[in-house]
Amino acid sequence: MLTVEELFGIDDLLSTEEREIRDTVAAFGARRLRPHIAEWFEAGTFPARELAPELGALGLLGMHLDGYGCAGMSATSYGLACQELEAVDSGVRSMVSVQGSLAMTAIHLFGSEEQKQHWLPEMAAGRVIGCFGLTEPDFGSNPGGMRTRAERDGGDWVLNGSKMWITNGSVADVAVIWARADDRIRGFLVPADTPGFRAREMGRKLSLRASITAELDLDDVRLPADALLPESAGLSAPLACLSEARFGIVFGALGAARDCLRATIEYARTREVFDKSLASYQLTQAKLADMALELGKGQLLALRVARLKDRHEVRPEQISAGKLNSTREAIAIARECRTILGANGITLDYPVLRHANNLESVLTYEGTAEVHQLVLGRALTDANAFR
């Protein structure tokens, strides 16, 4: 019986080291995460504080960054790790992605040497958790319209505003907050114990339940001058971090789809309908074949994007293409798998509807599907349709 990876010869495209990293993360997921993930999802909780040091010990936090305690792994290795984490649950990959691709990357790219030395080793080890405050209640797809402001007051900065849908927000030790300062968007490091800073966990979610999501309020938050990320200037700075996070999603969403497909194939092989296995029906096999085809095509595209990124040749539009394809196909696979499982598919005894619910968020965050369609449309036509 072939796996999708065998059908498309995926392992032949990976180095020995890349396969070992993938398998190590998969083993960690099987041992430490899978036994509890349905319970966490049902309860709407995630033990980020407990798991962060374990993820750090595996070298997964900021693993694609160089120096400062980071593993310095390739983009391909990071992508494969994201695939295995999201095969468990999108919330797990989101926690790692926000820590490494957003908060740590912002410090790595735009911070001073002192800021890097102070924060990055502790964040890589999982002893310090970070979050990334860009999205606001009224500004998601249009972050350039943000209302959060940073104003100078003597040698200090004073921040006022709010952020929403912030992963890790209520457990973070430090928040990377983006604010409008002197008509330019700048990044600031805000320790969670700073007076005037408050994080409130958001509940009543039907998606990403095994993930911590918060709303951040900044009320006259006073920061010293050295809280500013000195190299951050303009919207291109946070967008560069988002591009890193989107790359992880290119692989991650496919991990969720693969988990759905594997669970569904096993179910179909053992479930009897009219005195024979569900897998032996033509309609079932047609569904499985179509899903395997789209999953394999998505994995090949993800690997192509990763190889370009490892050569420092990837374009933002190519990451957009990967994110759009992976999320769109992954959610379609999850939904189709649910039809094969029938009523069993709506329970937490199987992963498919949990993945499908999570993918509703993954389809939207780090740029909605429509935003990425317009990114590609602009690249193909040289005409801007955003406004």
UniProtKB/TrEMBL annotation:
Any idea what this protein is called? Acyl-CoA dehydrogenase family protein
Protein family according to the UniProt entry: Belongs to the acyl-CoA dehydrogenase family.
UniProt source species: Nocardia bovistercoris
Q: Which residues form the Acyl-CoA dehydrogenase/oxidase C-terminal domain?
A: 234-380
Specify the Acyl-CoA oxidase/dehydrogenase middle domain's residue ranges.
131-221
User: Which chemical reaction does it catalyze?
Assistant: a 2,3-saturated acyl-CoA + A = a 2,3-dehydroacyl-CoA + AH2
One example of the protein's molecular function in GO is: flavin adenine dinucleotide binding
Tell me where in this chain the Acyl-CoA dehydrogenase/oxidase N-terminal domain is found: 16-126
Matches recorded under SUPFAM superfamilies:
Acyl-CoA dehydrogenase C-terminal domain-like, Acyl-CoA dehydrogenase NM domain-like
UniProt entry keywords in alphabetical sequence = FAD, Flavoprotein, Oxidoreductase, Transit peptide
Cofactors required: FAD
An annotated GO BP:
fatty-acyl-CoA biosynthetic process
